[in-house]
Amino acid sequence: MAETHLTMSQPMSKVPEKLDEQQTDIANGDFDSENEALRRHLSPRQVQFFAIGGSIGTALFISIGFGLLHGGAGSLLLAFIIQGIMMTFVTTNAIAEMTIFMPVSAAFIQHGGAWVDQAWGFMLGWNFFVFEAFLPAFEITAVDLVLTFWRDDIPSAAVITVRIATYGLTNAFGVKYFGEAEFWLSGGKLILILLLYCFTFVTMCGGNPQKDAYGFRNRTKPEPFLEYLSTGTSGRFQGFLAALWQANFIIVGPEYLATCAGEVQRPRTSLKTAFRSVYVRFVLFFILDAICVGIVLSARDPTLVKVLGSGETGTSASSVYVIAMRNMGVDALPHAVNALVLTSIYSAGDCYKFTAIRSLYALAQ
Q1: pTM surpassing 0.90?
Q2: Any idea which UniProt keywords this protein has (predicted)?
Q3: Which of 329 and 12 is assigned the larger pLDDT?
Q4: Residues in Cβ contact with 291 at an 8 Å cutoff, skipping those fewer than 6 apart
């Protein structure tokens, strides 16, 4: 039987021939993977939730406050729209087309080696692997910091050890167990996001202990485009760039779908549906979140300035929503938000570890 998986060593002139050999049933979305070491055990249900929530971590709920503080609500929203358009309509479309055409593990890494140059694939693979390999450490320490929301005497060593062990467990067994874990953890992210959106809508209409129907007042107070580092037009532009920097860190994701392409059942149909959901995620999660953040809290809120200026950026106390809840006198909701943020952090770290492993596997092909 002809070799059916794409390797870095295949010359570009032979790639189309190999691709045709691998295709078995386009109508049903099947893809011949008989000779591949990985098995296609990720169901369409798991892939869909992986596409929706796999890349959403602490940044969307906590780090976004920096963009609001430095640029203002207007700059934050504009930065998210620009970055979202670039990521969604440029990066996602390019990755989706190649991945659906050739759904192999860590697809974009192998595609770079086969269709551009082997040196390009080598550089791309190691760059992505190193980046993803270091990110779980960020999420592991974030859990320890978030737990300080309740108490300060929690042993950090125990928390970090448990996190490392659980990451190892979810990635040590078959990919279907990883997919099932991410399905439920991504569901927790969706609940958290919907909870925050409901909080924003209800409180802006006056449903808060202060009975203050503040509406869109915070978006224009003091002004939507703030000065940063300098004054005047130059300062506002630098404020926008600071917000755009945060947007670049927060809005990511299509590459994670490409990473698991070699383990998806009926990849030609499942991946097509999953990539289409990226457009919905862009609007419902990132754009709406940028709008809500500017609604619930002023960019010059004293607590926001104090917390972010003191370096407490890794705790949920620095979350724009938690600060807004405390300002309004809402006592119970911050605890629920903090608990759901913990699940979000774990899910993001688990995804980073998975993609790092698959990237290294692709480099070894």
Answers
A1: no
A2: Membrane, Transmembrane, Transmembrane helix
A3: 329
A4: 77
